[in-house]
Amino acid sequence: MFRIASAVFSLIDFLSSQPIHRIATFPSEEVKAGALFYTGSTTEAFIATAVSIFVNDNKNSSTEQWTTPINTLIRDDFVLTDEYWTNHITLEDVMSHRTGMPRHDSMWIIDDGSTVRRRTRSLRHLPLTNAPPTTSQYCNLMFMVVSHVIETATVLMIPEKKRAFAIMGNTAETSNLVASVLGYYLVDQLLGAPEQERYDWNASNQDAVLVSQKPFNRTAIPQSFYPHLPSPHLLASLPLSSYANSYHHLAYGAVTLNCTCDKSSTALIRD
Predict the structure, then answer these.
(1) Residue 133: is the preceding peptide bond cis (ω within 30°)?
(2) Do 182 and 37 contact (CB within 8 A), yes or no?
(3) Where does the pLDDT of residue 29 fall: very low under 50, low under 70, confident under 90, or very high at 90 and above?
């Protein structure tokens, strides 16, 4: 069995759920029922739990299992550049990050109002970089695909199920670092973790901020991404300024590159 993001969550009955504001305050303001918190990749555990429920509820079915190809569940929406893998990548492959699909985070990280269905349909325009399921390759986008599977399958197959999860997101006025501290604080409070045994997230985040504030090393960064570049480097066919323009990709959408110059270098920057 391959590793799948997981965690233990309580199932919430719509008729007896308790408001979240009863668990903690931070720092002195009560956490109200409508509060949203940034939880990042922990949402994968929610999705994995939802898939586990979905598979368990259909344990006597041969068409809704961990080994079920995604394409059979959302046939028109799940299409890859490779026809064979379109028809063979399974729920288990996706949940264990073995689809051959790279991150492509720049495609989805900017919120343009796209639905999970639209994100899923964009996969047909994105290349695979490994043969599934040979390599573990982290891909947030594929978990959006599973979200679409769950939304589609549960609406069509088990609408009478009264289950839900505590949904967490990010607040408009709180940075990711501060929100993560808050999230872990609430968990520690809920579990009753002793103060002296709690991890110091503030110190960890401060270290991360200090690293992010260091000036970029224009020489080291290209070498880290492309360690086998020829020396001397091959020159571009045209000056960099010639590539400054607006482009459009069927998955990435509009991409605008601007040319910036200083005394030591010229670079193309994406808006």
Answers:
(1) yes
(2) yes
(3) low
pLDDT at 270: 73
According to the model, what pLDDT value does residue 13 have?
41
22-36, 105-119, 121-135, 171-185: which has the highest mean pLDDT?
A: 121-135
26 Rama sector, left if φ>0, alpha if ψ -120 to 50, beta otherwise: beta
Please give the model's pTM, rounded to 2 decimal places: 0.64
**How many residues comprise the chain?**
271
| Residue 45: Cβ-neighbour burial (10 angstroms; 0-12, 13-18, 19+) | middle
Rounded distance between C-alpha atoms, residue 65 and residue 91, angstroms? 8
Strands of the 246-249 sheet, one edge to the other: 246-249, 253-261, 266-270
Q: Which two three-digit tokens encode residue 99? A: 């689809």
* Cα within 13 Å of Cα(5), Cβ side: 21
How much is the pLDDT for 53? 85
The answer to whether 104 and 139 have CB atoms below 8 angstroms apart is yes
Percent of the chain at pLDDT exceeding 90: 18
